[in-house]
Amino acid sequence: MQHANSNGAAGAAKDGAKDTGAVQEFVTVFVGETMFGLAINRVHDVFIPTGITPVPLAPPEIVGLLNLRGRVVTAICLRRRLGMSAAAGAAGQATGQATGMAIGLEQGGETFGLVVDGVGEVLKLGAETHEAVPINLDARWRDLALGVHRLDGRLLVILDVDGLLAFGSDRPSTKAA
Amino acid sequence: MDDLLREFLTESSEHLDTVDTELVRFEQDPNNETILRNIFRLVHTIKGTCGFLGLPRLEALAHAAETLMGRFRDGLPVSGASVSLILATLDRLKAILADLEVAGTEPAGSDADLIEALEQMAAGEAPAAAPAAPPPPPLPAIVERELKPGEVSLEDLEAAFLAAPGPDDEPAPAPLPVPVAVAAAAPVPAPVAPARPPAPVAQKAEAPAGQAAGPASESEGPAKVQTIRVNVDTLEHLMTMVSELVLTRNQLLEIARRHEDSSYKVPLQRLSHVTAELQEGVMKTRMQPIGNAWQKLPRVVRDLSAELGKQIELVMVGAETELDRQVLDVIKDPLTHMVRNSADHGLEATAVRVAAGKPARGTIRLSAYHEGGTITIEIADDGKGLDLAAIRRKAVERGLASQAEVEKMTDAQVAKFIFDAGFSTAAAITSVSGRGVGMDVVKTNIETIGGVIDINTQAGRGTTFTIKIPLTLAIVAALIVRAGESRFALPQVAVLELVRVDPSAAQKIERINGAPVLRLRERLLPIVTLTGLLGQDGGEAEIQSGFVVVAQVGRQRFGILVDEVFHTEEIVVKPMSTKLRHLSLFAGNTILGDGAVVLIIDPNGVARQVSQSAQAGQIPVEAEAEEAEIGEARTTLLVFKGGNGAFKAVPLSLVTRLEEIDASKVEWLGGRPLIQYRGRLMPLVVADEAIQIRNEGTQALVVFSDGDRAMGLVVDQIVDIVDERLDIEIAAERSDLIGSAVLRGRATDIINIAHFLPLAYDDWARGPRKAAAAKARTLLLVDDSAFFRDMLTPVLKAAGFSVVAASGAEQALAILSGETRIDVVVADLEMPGKGGFELVAEMRRAGGALAGLPVVALAGTVGPEMVERARRLAISDLVAKFDRSGLVAALAEIEAPGLAQAA
Question: Which of A88, B24, B260, B840 has the fewest Cβ atoms within 10 angstroms?
Answer without folding.
Answer: B260
